[in-house]
Amino acid sequence: MRRRRLLSVAGALAAQALCPVADAAAPATERFARNFDGMRLRDQDDRPFDFERLLGQVLLVGFVYTGCSTVCPVQTRALVEVLARLPRQARVRLVSLSVDPRGDTPAVLRAHARQVGADLSRWSFVTGRIEDIDRLGERLRLFRPDRAATPADHASGLWCIDAEGRLVQRYAGNPPDVARLVRELPVLAGRAQG
């Protein structure tokens, strides 16, 4: 039990160190969204996707690709369960960004979302240009430095962004702790409304 707690604390500290956000002097609304500045992202409906328009909601952001057969499907199934268990009125939105822009077109993402039973009224599947995903990967340290040119070795964590756009928590994504997310996300969303 003690070892598990130490590993949990060490993991949390490592996650904080690996999550670059804008400096503390920057306005809160710029912190996480600033990582996406200049990127042309598209959602599953092939509409422009902009993090700024989601301010006011708690966001749980993860990185996946539809061709994955290991971690991504497990994470996606868990997040389907999280959304199903969250109160409808909770201002929580999930965002899954593809790390495989070559294969994950908006149409592919939409088909995938339907196949897994994702509630698209509260969940966006997003893709972008290859250079944007590569740049985002560098900014958020999504890939191992020695990775091959495939999306397989990407970070599986989940970034939790508060209603003001600040990174407030990194959750494990392999697999996500469904009970913890169901318990904590509404509390965070309630603070935003209060």
From TrEMBL:
Gene3D superfamilies: Glutaredoxin. Keywords: Signal. It comes from the Bacteria. Residues 1-24 form the signal peptide. InterPro entries: SCO1/SenC, Thioredoxin-like_sf. The keyword Signal applies. Belongs to the SCO1/2 family. This is Protein SCO1/2. The lineage of its organism: Bacteria, Pseudomonadati, Pseudomonadota, Betaproteobacteria, Burkholderiales.
